[in-house]
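ugh ok fine here u go
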Amino acid sequence: MGFIRISLTKENKNNDMETKNRLIIKTSRQKGEIWKMVWILLGVFFGAFLFDVIPIPGPPAWMIMLFFYLKFDLNMWVVLYIGVTGSVLGRYIMSLYFGKISNRLITVKKNEDLTFLGSKLSQNLPRAWGFVFIYTLVPLPTTPLFNVMGIAKVKPLTVLPPFFVGKFISDGYMLLAGNVIVTDIPSIIEGMLTLKSLLITLGALITMAGILFTDWMTLLQHKKFRLKFNVFK
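structure:
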């Protein structure tokens, strides 16, 4: 009987050890999967951030979101929320440093003109929100918008909330459309070099030039449209 009890005790201990080892392995795998997902989502955030922190029109941030979404089979809404948050932060930081750089590139008079425009936009918050929201939905890069906002020193509250909502809608649509249309990752890269994307970039540069060369004081105070091209130092 004693021998049987000792054998049963050893067997129970071995079973306990096997159970503990399995739990350790399972826990380690779960932690590994969690950290892998964290790094992937950080890639979404910083990818969108880097796409939108540059001060010149480039590939839209939804492309990097679509890449991670399809490559790792992620939840679309999680990718969208994290990606748009990174994009908004990138645009905000871009507007801050571009506003400081512009002082070295643009004349004092033009800086005053754009600051006047910024003050007018900040005074009428509903109209400013409506303009930013609609502009974000239009298939044009938002780089010129935030370049001008940085120069004009527009308050973040005037731009960021409607930009977040508009970008969430427009990028969400692109992710849904991309999930249906795109069948492989190279198609995303090819989409960056299409004639349509080049025309959109050209449209953004024209928009930027229009905002930059318009005499806003004359337009808003005297209701007269006038262009001024001597805006650079």
